[in-house]
Design brief:
2 copies of one chain form a homodimer. By secondary structure, chain A is an alpha/beta fold. Chain A folds into 2 domains: about 5-50, RecR Domain 1 (Helicase, Ruva Protein, domain 3); about 60-170, Dna Topoisomerase Vi A Subunit, Chain: A, domain 2 (3-Layer(aba) Sandwich). Helices cover about 45% and strands about 10% of the residues of chain A. Chain A contains 8 helices and 6 strands. In chain A, strands 4-3-5-6 form a 4-stranded parallel β-sheet. Chain A has a two-stranded antiparallel sheet with strand order 1-2. Chain A is globular, with a radius of gyration of 21 Å. The relative contact order of chain A is 0.08. The mean pLDDT of chain A is about 90.
Chain lengths: ~200, ~200
Amino acid sequence: MAAGDLDRVMHLLAKLPGLGPRSARRAMLHLMQKREALMVPLADALAAAARSIRTCSTCGNFDTTDPCAICQDPRRDPSLICVVEDVGDVWALERAAAFKGRYHVIGGVLSALDGVGPEDLKVDGLVTRAAMPEVTEVILAMNATVDGQTTAHYIADRLAGTGVAVSRLAHGVPVGGELDFLDDGTLTQALKARHSV
Amino acid sequence: MAAGDLDRVMHLLAKLPGLGPRSARRAMLHLMQKREALMVPLADALAAAARSIRTCSTCGNFDTTDPCAICQDPRRDPSLICVVEDVGDVWALERAAAFKGRYHVIGGVLSALDGVGPEDLKVDGLVTRAAMPEVTEVILAMNATVDGQTTAHYIADRLAGTGVAVSRLAHGVPVGGELDFLDDGTLTQALKARHSV
């Protein structure tokens, strides 16, 4: 039977997204079978990461330096700021390697149900950054959900006074997507935004 | 973007059963957002568990003591030994709380394909234990797979000289199971092993 230390690891593993009590137990068994090859390195790597991770004070990204590697990189275009909900979205855009500007992580979306108001999001910092002379465009890359779009509207309003250009991601048919499986909203948007070939 | 420490954690998390690269990334983001509440405690708990876990030299179970809590427990019946493939099976039987004897973990199954031979399993220790005067019955609780049943046959042969009674788990309809969804093998076994009501 599992003793105190094992129970504690399983209890914590079960809190990770994608793992429940059952899969946490399987993960624990796997860890115990590979104590030297997996359990000890994972404990060390987690401790090292917990020590070294910083939140970038400029953009809100996670990195081991502050400012983060993206904010420090002189090859990134300082005139473009892409606003995202959280750090996972930064990673997604970086994987696509489609954006060469800088980011701003606002840390969530406005949500009356969850009690998230404007004061809970890092919008003030964004307005300050957007007012800097080198910034010409802010791209709102919130998720295409009701809360995400509400938040995008709110941010666009807040940026109105800065004179910066504000844009948002295009809606449309996903690359590789089949029309038959798309929802009506996406099809309507894709039709509206059609362009000549 | 993820730096060295973060990459290392994600790489190791992705090796856990049930987690792939994508869910490891989600888990990493979650850990970073809950650094103090989850990441640091998980690192500590893993390190503590890695230090304290022992393999029971009697039965092969994992515990923080050797002999394990089950082998040490005077309330467990010493005349019954339940033979299982791995520690996960001990946990499953303990959760069911249906067995009051002791265990023997042989650490796998015979498998020609995977190159697992009798010398890779802890059968010698089982034969020694079964020959002890207090032991009257050995229950073979291998999985109902071809390899599991081959292994059970082999162990039954090895135990033949000890004079101990050897039994195996009953096959039949799982509790709550519907006949329509059961395979032919299970139905045949359940019919053969029918008993009067």
